[in-house]
Amino acid sequence: MTSSRKTAVVVCPGRGTYNKPELGSISNALPAALQSTLAQIDHTRTELNLATVSELDQAPLFKSSLHQRPEHAAALIYAGGYLDYQALNTDKFEVVAITGNSMGWYTAMACAESWNINTSTRLVTRMAQLTAGGAGAQFIYPVVDEQWRPCAAKQAAVAQQLERFAGDLKMSIKYGGYAVLAGSEAACSAAMAALPRLDERFPMLLPGHAAFHTHFMQQASQQALAEWPAAAFHAPQTPLIDGRGQIWPAHVTHQAALQQYTLGHQVTETYDFSKVIQTAAKEFAPDHFILLGPGAGLGGAVAQALIEINWQGLDSKAEFSARQQVSLPYVLSMGLPEQRALVTG
User: Helices 35-47 and 117-132 sit at what angle, rounded to 10 degrees?
Assistant: First the structure.
């Protein structure tokens, strides 16, 4: 260990981050030293009678019917993130905390060694199956202006729909400059029709998504709690920040609490990713945020969450972009080859 190491908070991506552009990204970026780790993940998938991550990632063509099946998509996202974490150059970076967005919490748990590879691969796969079987839908809507500053009018429009469909429509994820809403299909359709159209894209329905992080997931939560005992959970070896912004310190054993949060609250209640990032900045003040793959879509949401609290004077998209124009940017995305090289080399 040297004092010249930079501190970093690691962030794991959630659903919808492994798409056609990511095909082959796991295998192509995999260091030789991590081949055996991927083999362990593949072995567990074989035991589950499911396609391995290697088979999916190395397929000649990306097929939505195959790669976006929940139990396959989740495994690709988890494996991509976990392997990225293992590839970090720990001589250059000291990871002071790990967190994630939505199902990225499972990847964070694996990175923090709360589960071993076999358990995390099985649990990620199973949770994808259980939650995909839930009812409802999910859509996303921006609540910031063009410079990523909070927009009161857009926030009010979202709040109006939540009030209008109370009980049937919930805030699913607070995702930086976006509100991810979820609920019954009827409530989502009506709310989407009522919200002002923005950028010719929003409100945007998230295809194949159920009403994640709402009471519509209660049955999935109860089933998961019955299948995965507290004994399967272990104290993290690195601090974790959960979807409420709560910190789980390293080396402290609280198996039942970790089980109840992960398979209970985390599944059925709002995931506040903005608060996650804000807590990480305030409590750990890292030199960098390192965003794991697959994909490179987390950067905007991280920046928007920091702009919301004017972190270190960060007050706009333009200012964030300007600050990133340095040799070692504050936010480093492993989904971008040039930035990946900075954290693995």
Answer: 50
